[in-house]
Amino acid sequence: MTPEVMAFYSALDDFETWRAALSAEGIDLRQADDIADPASVRHALVWKPPHGFFARYPNLGLVVNLGAGVDALVGRDDLPDVPITRLSDPKMARMMAGYVLFAVTRHARDIPAFERAQRERRWHYIHPRDPETISVGVLGLGELGLTAALECARQGYRVLGWSNTLKSVEGIETSAGLRALPDVLASSDILVCMLPQTPQTRGLLDAERLMQMKRGAAFINVSRGSIVDEPALIEALRSGHIAEATLDVFAAEPLSPESPLWAMDNVLVTPHLASVALPGSAARQIGENVRRLRDGEPLLGRVDPRRGY
After folding, report:
1. Per-residue pLDDT reduced to its tens digit, 140-150
2. What confidence tens digit (pLDDT) does each residue in 173-213 have?
């Protein structure tokens, strides 16, 4: 069988690594700009392609987003009427859970205070707290959010899970809907934002909702910067209403060198790496979806453009 031709576009991901991984799945991955016959392309593996990118491929049958978040694709006026899938790789969920647990534990164990004391060459003891006395709010219980929430619960934290629709999860206190959100904000010692970016979540954590958070709480964002009012967050961090933050995502990326967040000693900045697609494992899902598309079977990780995820 002739290998399926898949066009690749990403300014961040390594083409050769993906090419080798997908070759084992019988997929001929090619750089978009190097494809001589656009009509041969049946699939596209992309991350934030330029406007009009898809129009060059008349026989396109599948778009694969290079990541779990598909906000850069849905809502575009140049998107073809073909299935869109996100990468749903168990290793991505495990990677995300590891980052969230690191960030939660860092705040729960007062590590930022020790980091400041070290810079001042000052011996500073804070007695560790029992994890069961620390409430961790997790906004968003999708695949990644749920895995992270369960990992925090496994470590003994009291986990409050909030989502758009109510979910029943053993070991997690769940709630849903905007009416329940203020209680989660006010009850969380550490708040983790893991929501997808949709028209409903954009700007959800505005100045008013940030002030509904428990005073002195810590905030972790590993979803999308647009969900949070960044100037309001900066002000809340300056005032001490939010004591500390771990931020992996921002309203504009890369984060501008002029952003006050860089210089704030109660903020940890990381460059949008909490969870990334690993070609070696994600390629299997892509290959499976190519086979499913060919056989007319339901696709894994298919995106509903109306919902935005």
Report:
1. 999 999 999 99
2. 999 999 999 999 999 999 999 999 988 999 999 999 999 99
Closest CA to 18 of 44, 39, 38: 44
Q: Give exposure, 230-244, as e/b (b: 16+ Cβ within 10 Å).
A: bebbbbbbeeeebbb
Residues near 39 by beta carbon (within 8 Å), at least 6 away in sequence: 57, 58, 59
What CA–CA distance (Å, rounded) separates 111 from 61? 49
Considering the chain, what percentage of its residues have pLDDT values greater than 90?
Answer: 84
Residues spanned by the domain of 67: 4-89+277-295
CA neighbor of 104 nearest in space, from 31, 38, 146, 153: 153
Round to whole Å and give the CA distance between 281 and 205.
34
Active site residues: 224, 272
Question: What CATH code is carried by the domain that includes residue 65?
Answer: 3.40.50.720
